[in-house]
Structures are given as C-alpha cells and as structure tokens.
Amino acid sequence: MKRLLFWLAILALALGKTGFAQDEKTIKIVSSLPRTGSANAQTTSMVNGIKMAIDEVGGKIDGYSIVHEDRDDASPERGQWDPAIEAATAHKAVEDPTTLAYIGTYNSGAAKIAMPILNQASLLMVSPANTYPGLTKPGLGEANEPAVYRPSGKVTYFRVVPADDIQGEVAANFAKELGIKKVYIIHDRELYGKGVADVFKKVCGKLGIEVTGYDGIDAKSANYRSLVTRIKSSGAELVYFGGTTQSNAGQLLKDLVSGGSKAKFMSPDGTREMAFIESAGKDALEGRAYVTFGGLPPSELKGKGREFYEHYKAKFHAEPEAYAAYGYEAAHVAIEGIKRAPTKTREAVCEAVRHIQDFDGALGKWAFDANGDTTLKVMMVETVKNGQFVPVKIVGQ
C-alpha cells in the first residue's frame, strides 16, 4: 500500500510539472460546430481559421496560454447538429472555469439551445454562421425572441455574419431582377431554413412576385418526385429552397432536373459549400442555380481579408470554404475581448466585446450594434460554373 501511495505521489508531481494538472494561467476557447456529416468540409475550414487567429497571437494573451477545444455538436444518427449534444457541450463549457469564449454555432437551431445556457453563466458566445434574425432582433422572430435567450438580461451573444432579414430581401430582389413572376418556396422545417424562406416570401409579396406554393419537406426523404410534379404544374419559374446542404438541397435539385422542371433554383448561404455542388452534381447547377451569401467569399476579400486568404492557402494547401474567414473573425473577436478585459473573467470579456466599435478585421471595418449584430451588410449572389461558385452580384458595398 505504501508503495502504491509513493508512485501515486510521483505521478501527481509529474502531472503538475507537465501541465496536465489544472493550470491557472490557461484560457480556453471552445468551438461547437457540426464535425460529423457533410458539413465537415465547411467546419474544418472554420476550425482552421480559428487556429490561425490563435497562432497569430502566439497562443498567448497577457501571460495566459490560449487553448482551443474543437467540439462536435453533430451525431452520426442525425448526420448534422444534434440538440442533446449541443446542450451537453454548452453545459460542459459553463462548468469549466477556464472557458472564457464559445465560438458557434453553425446552425441557428443549435444556437437557440446554447444561448440561454451560456448567457446565464455570462459566457461569451460568438457565432461565425448563425443568420436567423430572431436570435438577436426584436420583432423579427417569435414574440419572446430574443429575450428568451438572455435570461441574465444582458447581451452575451454576438455574430459576425449578416442576418437573414437582409439575405432574404436580397434574394427576392435578385429574383425580381431575373424577371421571375412565379416562385415556389420550399423549406426544411428548421429554424434557419424556414426563417429565411419566410423573409423571402414576405418580400416577394411586396415585389409582386406570385408565390405558387409553400411547402416544408422531410430532409431525410429519398426523393421529392411528387413535389416536383406540383412545382411543374404550378408554373413556377423559380424554386427557392430555405435550407442547407445537410437538409437535402442537392437531392431536391437533382429531382427537379430529372423531373423535367425548367425552373431556376435559389438557396441561401447554408448551401454555399462544395458539398452542395458534389451532392447536386455540377451539371444540375450550371445555368440554373443561385446561392446568396452574407458577405464575400474568401477569394473576394480585401486588405486583411486578402492576407488571411493567402496565408490560409499557404498553410493548408487548399482553398478555404466560404465560412473559413468567419471562423477566423469570430476567434479574433474572442481574442480581442480577452485582450481588452481588465480582468480575465467572463463578465469582463463580455463587457469588452459589447464595446467593440472599431474592429478592423478580415471582413472589413465594422462594429457590433446593441443587439450583438455586425454592422456589415454586404451580401453576394453567386452561381455555379465549371463546378465552382462564381460571383454574379454584390449588394451593400
């Protein structure tokens, strides 16, 4: 027994010296993104951006070592984000006193779960990708939004991407420019997908574009042939899909093509990834598909954004996906908040981020408004040519 205690004491001493014991000079930044399923290529690119931001400060702030914890909020069963996993990830972050920032989520539905948990603990949350307006903007979601996500009464959630009230309007206006008179609207029944579809529908009404149908689909369905029959008979010249690659956008487009529909296809930023092109097939996309995106793709960024783009390609030997720069920017926001905080506490970090009014980053020069939204409103419409996304129109520059 004495011999066992002796070796346990030696092991404890060794752990302390090698840093495996709790280190009071460590600050953790947790990211919660879907790392399982077809979103993986997009989120890997985002995590690469987060790592780049931490590397650029040498992994240290004011004598504290910055540690990144890459968490997966998806499950193999769902193939995308999972509510139970997101809740568990948020609770784990709250319970770890070294965690001062939470980067996520990718899906707006996941944000609804994490936000109140983190807010109650005054833990900073910075999203690189959530676009559902109700998360931050009063009057643009449910009656209790966004207050229900702020049990502490303070804003602790921020996003570096424009919301869907802007994206849906840009999409509808572009449809008008294409000469579209009739549109069939489909959504995936998720918070993000239905949210942006609702905005698109509302603006179409104002523009005089007739909505010939409005349906929610089962994202796990093997095909949508019966839906395509309804779309064709409606006379729709455009199909608008509110959803993501993971909610079967590619299958829907393939069925439109095989079913003989000549309607054009438009979808929001949740499909702005190579996985969408691969799932739909580039031939199905050529000449008929459009994707809107909040901001500019990495290759179109200027200044610090261009530097990020070049450094990313040199470091990872690949083109960054659309949201890589947003992961990078979100991480720099967290880092800036930690830097500015006079004490390294959750409350101080959140307070510092609330006062960011002069951020000069990869996405340009911008600020956070009182709701935690970015002041950037640049949007892009893209099409697909030769298997690549190609810019068609930039709005808001």
Q: Top keywords for this entry?
A:
Rossmann fold; 7-stranded mixed sheet; 6-stranded mixed sheet; 397 residues; alpha/beta
Q: Radius of gyration, rounded?
A: 22 Å
At the fourth level of CATH, the homologous superfamily of the largest domain is: Response regulator
- Number of H/I helices: 13
Under CATH, the topology of the largest domain can be stated as Rossmann fold
Principal-axes shape call: globular
Low-confidence stretches: 1-23
- Spatial order of the strands in the main sheet? 8-7-9-10-11-14-15
The mean pLDDT is 93
What is the C-level CATH assignment of the largest domain?
Answer: Alpha Beta
Strand content: 15-25%
H/E order of the elements? HEHEEHEHEEHEHEHEHEHHEHHHEEEE
Count of all domains: 2
CATH architecture title of the largest domain? 3-Layer(aba) Sandwich
Structural class: alpha/beta
Structural write-up:
The chain is globular, with a radius of gyration of 22 Å. It has two domains: 25-161 and 302-366, 3-Layer(aba) Sandwich (Rossmann fold), CATH 3.40.50.2300; 164-294 and 379-395, Response regulator (Rossmann fold, 3-Layer(aba) Sandwich), CATH 3.40.50. With 397 residues, the protein is an alpha/beta fold. It has 13 helices and 15 strands. It has helices at residues 2-18, 40-56, 83-95, 108-120, 164-177, 191-207, 225-234, 249-258, 274-280, 282-285, 304-316, 324-340, 346-354, and strands at residues 26-33, 60-61, 64-72, 99-103, 124-127, 157-159, 182-187, 210-216, 238-242, 264-267, 289-294, 359-361, 364-366, 379-385, 388-395. The protein is 41% helix and 20% strand.
